[in-house]
Amino acid sequence: MSPIALAQDRPPPTVHGFDDLAFKNDYITPRGLLVTNKGLTIQILNGFVAPVYSSASGPISDLSLVAGVWNDLNPGHQNAPTHNEFDAFGGVNFSIYKDWIAGIQYVAFISPPGNFNTEHNIEFSLRYEDNMRWLSRISLNPYAKLFFTFSGDSTVVLGKVPSSDVELGAVPTWDLHPLLS
C-alpha cells in the first residue's frame, strides 16, 4: 500500500498544550530548597507536546517533542524582585512497546534578578503504565527519574556541580467508571 494511502488512514498528529497557574504562600523546590515562605508566590507553567512519530508495530510506538516555560513570581515579598525564577525546558518522550514511557529533557533554571548563575540540567525518566492489568481497576504506574546538574549554580543535594538526584515513585490510579455507570 502506498505511504499516501497509509497516511490517509491515520488522523493527523495533534499538538497538545498545557497550562497551570498556582497561587501559594511558599515555594519549596522538588529537591528541598526553601526559596520563599513570605508573601504570595505565583507559579505559571506553559508548554506543548508535539507528536512526531506513531506506529502500531515495532519497539518504538510513539515519539513526541515537549517544550515549555515555568515562572515564579513573588509580588508580595518585600525587598525582593517580583520575577524570582524563569525555567525553560525541552525534550523528547517516547513509548517503548506501548507500556514503557522514556524521556530525556533539558531544563535551564534562570534567575531574572541575577540571584544565581543559570543552572543547566538534564533529566532522564522512565515509567511503566500498567493499565490496570494486574489489579483490576487499580494501576500503580511506577516511575524513576534521574536529575543531573552539569553547569551553573546548583541547588541540588549539596549545591555542588556536577550533582544529581534520583526520584522513585508511583502514580496510583483507581478507575471509578464501572462504579459510576
Give a nutshell description of this structure:
The chain has helices at residues 3-9, 177-180, and strands at 16-24, 27-28, 34-36, 41-54, 60-73, 83-96, 100-110, 119-128, 138-139, 142-151, 163-170, 173-174.
What does the secondary structure layout of this molecule look like, with pairings?
Blueprint: H1 3-9, E1 16-24, E2 27-28, E3 34-36, E4 41-54, E5 60-73, E6 83-96, E7 100-110, E8 119-128, E9 138-139, E10 142-151, E11 163-170, E12 173-174, H2 177-180
Model description:
It is built from two helices and twelve strands, in the order αββββββββββββα. It is mostly beta strands. It has one domain (3-180). The strands form three sheets. It has an eight-stranded antiparallel sheet, with no helix packed on it. Strands 2-3 form a two-stranded antiparallel ribbon. The radius of gyration is 20 Å and the shape is globular. Mean pLDDT is 83; it is low at 1-8.
Keywords for this entry:
181 residues, mainly beta, eight-stranded antiparallel beta sheet, two-stranded antiparallel ribbon, disordered N terminus
Summed up, the domain count is 1
DSSP helix fraction: under 10%
- The rounded distance between the terminal residues' Cα atoms is 42 Å
Shape: globular
Uncertain segments: 1-8
